[in-house]
Write a structure and sequence with these properties.
Blueprint lengths: L5 E18 L4 E14 L4 E6 L12 H16 L7 H11 L4 H19 L3 H4 L7 E3 L2 E3 L4 H14 L5 E4 L5 H15 L5 E4 L6 H13 L2 E5 L7 H10 L4 E4 L6 H9 L5 E4 L1 H4 L2 H14 L2 E4 L6 H12 L4 E5 L3 H4 L11 E2 L2 E3 L12 H7 L3
Parallel strand pairs: 5-6, 6-7, 7-8, 8-9, 9-10, 10-11, 11-12
Antiparallel strand pairs: 1-2, 2-3, 4-14, 13-14
Helix pairs in contact: 1-3, 2-3, 5-6, 6-7, 9-11
Length: 374
């Protein structure tokens, strides 16, 4: 097979409810908007991708509605006629012609990779060099609710054996009150599971310097994005100050160039990878290569994907040796329903990497119709 051209690229907007509200520092999710992307090749192979953002445009500036318009009017005409068997080349073309829209580009590129795998009857992970790990540990994200609610949820998940580590969202309360809440959670769980916090850049440097040691004393082992994205120097100072808490970059890390800046500044200990924020599998793989060269670990993040996006992330993260700090690919567990005929599988706190052609996910057309935006 020398080439396989794209003949159509279509989108559909879906709204899928959550099993409970999911709160960030500045937004609360009750449903997840999903932009489903369907790519068709000249011989009838269908590849699927999805565009999702966590709770709307507050996080990265994109929305599923904006992605749909961008793809329909600009990206689809670029992709039609291109060869899906050259996904890396197509990804680079999209980077040059659609700057500043990584989530939209990622969804399109995802469909290209899925079609390439299906055309060759192999998992995408095999196209990426093969898996280093076929079961990925999954951390569950707890919201910003009061301590007693968070503790109840964590204890239930531990008792069910569904998760063995947790990340607590912070940033909606005054720092002292928020820290007291997290410390109460740590005391109640009493080292039953590793705990991390995610501030989504909510604190200034003084606040972080003041309160992160208290979180360390409460058993917190990792702080994700404690400072605003642009404050690399402040992150570096925090890294030098903290001995028992790892600092992880998320909002500070979008591109391979960002990864290089963070590494050379010694600003963080861990890099949070997300296919959506970095524009696709290809760019995310380049970020992981920078991390590995710099001796940094990577963490597989989520933007609350369905089983489709989760399987795509899992196949990539499982193929990257730098992903040694775990993942939080819990998206399908937070959604009240899925669009996959057979959703991804979790066992004892781990996600099993799919093994079918492409991303190994069959889309349930009835579910798509059920959740399609009218």
């Amino acid at each position: 097979m020398t080439a396989l051209r794209v003949t159509a690229l279509e989108t559909r907007l879906l709204d899928i409810p959550l099993v409970r509200p999911h709160r960030f520092s500045v937004a609360t999710m009750h449903t997840q908007g999903v932009l489903l992307i369907r790519l068709v090749t000249e011989d009838g192979i269908v590849g699927w991708g999805e565009g999702v953002v966590p709770g709307g445009p507050w996080w990265g500036g994109e929305s599923v509605e904006g992605m749909a318009a961008l793809i329909e009017h600009h990206l689809a005409p670029l992709v039609v006629g291109q060869d899906v068997l050259r996904p890396e080349a197509l990804a680079r073309r999209l980077e040059k012609l659609a700057a500043g829209a990584p989530f939209a580009r990622a969804g399109v590129e995802m469909a290209v990779w899925d079609a390439a795998g299906r055309a060759q009857d192999v998992p995408v992970s095999q196209l990426l060099g093969g898996l280093h790990c076929d079961r990925l540990p999954v951390t569950w994200a707890l919201g910003t609710e009061p301590a007693e609610i968070v503790v109840e949820e964590a204890r239930r998940l531990l008792a069910e054996g569904r998760h063995r580590s947790f990340k607590l969202k912070m940033g909606t309360l005054p720092a002292a009150e928020d820290v007291a809440r997290v410390c109460a959670v740590g005391a109640a769980l009493d080292d039953a599971a590793p705990l991390a916090v995610d501030l989504n850049g909510a604190w200034d440097e003084y606040t972080a310097r003041r309160w992160l040691p208290a979180l360390a004393d409460a058993g917190i082992h990792l702080a994700e994005q404690p400072l605003p994205a642009a404050n690399l120097a402040g992150l570096a100072r925090l890294c030098r100050q903290l001995n028992s808490v790892a600092v992880m970059a998320d909002e500070s890390l979008w591109t391979p160039a960002d990864a290089l800046r963070l590494a050379t500044a010694h600003a963080v200990d861990i890099l949070a990878l997300k296919i959506g924020k970095s524009g696709g599998l290809s760019a995310t793989r380049r970020i992981a290569a920078v991390a590995e060269a710099a001796g940094l670990n990577c963490y597989g993040g989520t933007t609350i994907e369905t089983s489709l996006g989760t399987a795509a992330s899992a196949q990539l993260f499982g193929a990257l040796p730098a992903v040694r700090a775990g993942t939080e690919l819990f998206g399908p567990l937070l959604l009240a329903d899925d669009i996959a005929a057979e959703p991804v599988t979790y066992e004892a706190g781990k996600l099993l990497v799919t093994s079918g052609p492409g991303f190994g996910i069959t889309i349930d057309e009835e579910k798509v119709a059920k959740y399609a935006r009218r």
